[in-house]
Amino acid sequence: MDRFNAMRVFTRIVELGGFAKAADSLQLPRASVTILIKQLEAHLGVQLLQRTTRQISLTLDGAAYYPRCVRLLADLEETEAVFSAARHNPKGLLRVDMPAGVGRLIVIPALPQFTARYPLIELEIGLNDRPVDLIREGVDCVLRGGSSLDDSLVARPLVMLDQVTCASPGYLQRHGTPQCLADLEGHEMVEYVSSHSGKRFGLEFVVDGQIQPINLPKHVAVNSADGYLAACEAGYGLVQTPYYHVARQLKEGNLVEVLREVPPPGMPLAALYPPHRQLSRRVRVFVDWMVELCAQPGNGFVKEHSGR
């Protein structure tokens, strides 16, 4: 029995929640996965996984064994990278998750830079506005905006996203264009609702260095970034969103920025990954590349002529 291979299979079963998913992920026959786990349990003399017809769960021994496996496998990967060509030309599968807008509008268009530099890395990119469970879903790294981040993950700040307040031309024709916060009386907003926590978000403005929240009446609330903008374009009120998400609509005149003198607070964007992945060469080079991308002029994350 190849113990390291068996440990890799075991950790992937835990992360993905099933034998079949682990087999597909590792491109192994499902029978081989079952045999390896049986051999590993026989070698250790304990049962690691509790199997039922509906789910797989860790036994107490399995729960104690899992984090040790994760650390050993990460150490093995890093040790091999130090003494192999992988140190300079890392290879293998890298699973990354990011907000749909960030991926579609900025990261994926720039991705040829990364794949040209690291041609042996295979990327699997998830585009989600929902938080993902990195361990359970087998994700190596995520990009996330906002200040509420998971303390159990390593976070590397990337950039402070410019945000804008905007509305459709039709809405502004009906309600007028606000020139200051006092002009917001009689206006409406589109409310954003977190699909994960259910938290509702109104508007926020930076006034004399302080954040001033303002809630306006609404007819529509949505729980996705694309739906949020669609409701704004349909004329349902003011929205606040990262600049990159509306750069095209602003340029084409489908949306109009308002209240530039009292902008929304910036939104921090960070790369997050589990502590056991911080030694992974694949994760490290991808995060380093994201830092480079965020520092490039005209990267789309900040407003043009913003003075930054």
From TrEMBL:
Nucleotidyltransferase is among the record's keywords: no
Source lineage: Bacteria, Pseudomonadati, Pseudomonadota, Gammaproteobacteria, Pseudomonadales
InterPro entries: LysR-type_TF_proteobact-type, LysR_HTH_N, LysR_subst-bd, WH-like_DNA-bd_sf, WH_DNA-bd_sf
Keywords: DNA-binding, Transcription, Transcription regulation
Organism for this UniProt entry: Pseudomonas migulae
Top-level taxonomic group: Bacteria
Domain named HTH lysR-type: residues: 1-59
Name listed for the protein in its UniProt record: LysR family transcriptional regulator
Keyword DNA-binding found: yes
Family statement: Belongs to the LysR transcriptional regulatory family.
